[in-house]
């Protein structure tokens, strides 16, 4: 699963370059999670997961607090969770997750982004079957054996634990996100280089330089859309 980890690192690095965009997206996601359940992360697992992810992107406390207070205040702003599937150049596949208060606007913008940048929209299920929902954690300063021992003591089975570039990567079932996080934190690990719920491709494709440039442009345009939260894909990025 090594190259998949590199893809996650690369996507995170690209997003980190535009902090205002990623902060706005997390603000929206935190608001939705807080409004759908309790505004207390200890009583709302979905909110706790979002906050842990936000921490790895260094989202300021002011943005987090503002989103939670907005939810507490009973704002009538409602968002729908949407998933679009599509194709890019030469066998590349994309899943686009969005939160929107205007479904028609978002659908139109996503369709246009695909159509104008070498891609095309697919029907529901045309791409998702090639991906697997996965919880991913990155831990530095430990060995794979260290992490395996911690998780075994907590009686948690995970898909895989690998070491890459001085980082231990844990791949787990998405519903194990909280359990893995809690086990690691109880063992004294409170900082994660990555803590993500993502869609990992079962198989990845390599693109030519020309197709890669076209593909990256498509991803950039999609991620720039206000309503798009995450873009998942099956393209192997260069190390």
What would the keywords be for this entry?
single chain; 239 residues; alpha+beta; Arc Repressor Mutant, subunit A; Alpha-Beta Plaits; 3 domains; four-stranded antiparallel sheet; 8 helices; 8 strands; globular
Describe this structure in words.
The chain has 239 residues and is of the alpha+beta class. It contains 8 helices and 8 strands; from the N terminus they run ααααββαββαββαβαβ. Strands 3-1-2-8 form a 4-stranded antiparallel sheet. The chain has a 4-stranded antiparallel sheet with strand order 5-6-4-7, with helices on both faces. α2 packs antiparallel against α3 (45-56) and α2 runs parallel beside α4 (61-72). The longest helix is centred in the first third of the chain and has 18 residues, at 19-36. The chain starts with a helix and ends in a 6-residue tail after the last strand. It comes from Lederbergia ruris. It is found in: Cytoplasm. This is Probable transcriptional regulatory protein J8TS2_24860.
């Amino acid at each position: 699963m090594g190259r998949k980890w590199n893809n996650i690192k690369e996507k995170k690095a690209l997003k980190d370059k535009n902090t205002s965009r990623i902060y706005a997206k997390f603000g929206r996601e935190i608001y939705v999670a807080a409004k759908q359940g309790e505004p207390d992360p200890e009583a709302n697992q979905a909110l706790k997961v979002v906050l842990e992810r936000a921490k790895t992107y260094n989202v300021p406390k002011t943005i987090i607090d503002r989103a939670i207070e907005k939810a507490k205040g009973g704002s009538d702003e409602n968002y729908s969770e949407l998933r679009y599937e599509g194709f890019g150049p030469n066998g590349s596949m994309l899943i686009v997750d969005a939160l929107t208060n205007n479904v028609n606007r978002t659908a139109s913008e996503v369709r246009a982004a695909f159509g104008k940048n070498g891609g095309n929209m697919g029907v529901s299920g045309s791409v998702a079957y090639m991906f697997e929902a996965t919880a991913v954690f990155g831990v530095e300063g430990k060995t794979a054996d260290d992490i395996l021992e911690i998780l075994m003591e907590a009686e948690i089975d995970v898909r895989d634990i690998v070491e890459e570039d001085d980082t231990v990567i844990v791949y787990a079932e998405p519903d194990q996100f909280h359990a893995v996080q809690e086990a690691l934190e109880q063992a004294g690990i409170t900082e994660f280089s990555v803590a993500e719920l993502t869609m990992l491709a079962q198989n990845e494709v390599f693109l030519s330089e020309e197709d890669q440039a076209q593909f990256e442009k498509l991803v950039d345009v999609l991620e720039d859309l206000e309503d798009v939260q995450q873009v998942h894909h099956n393209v192997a990025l260069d190390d």
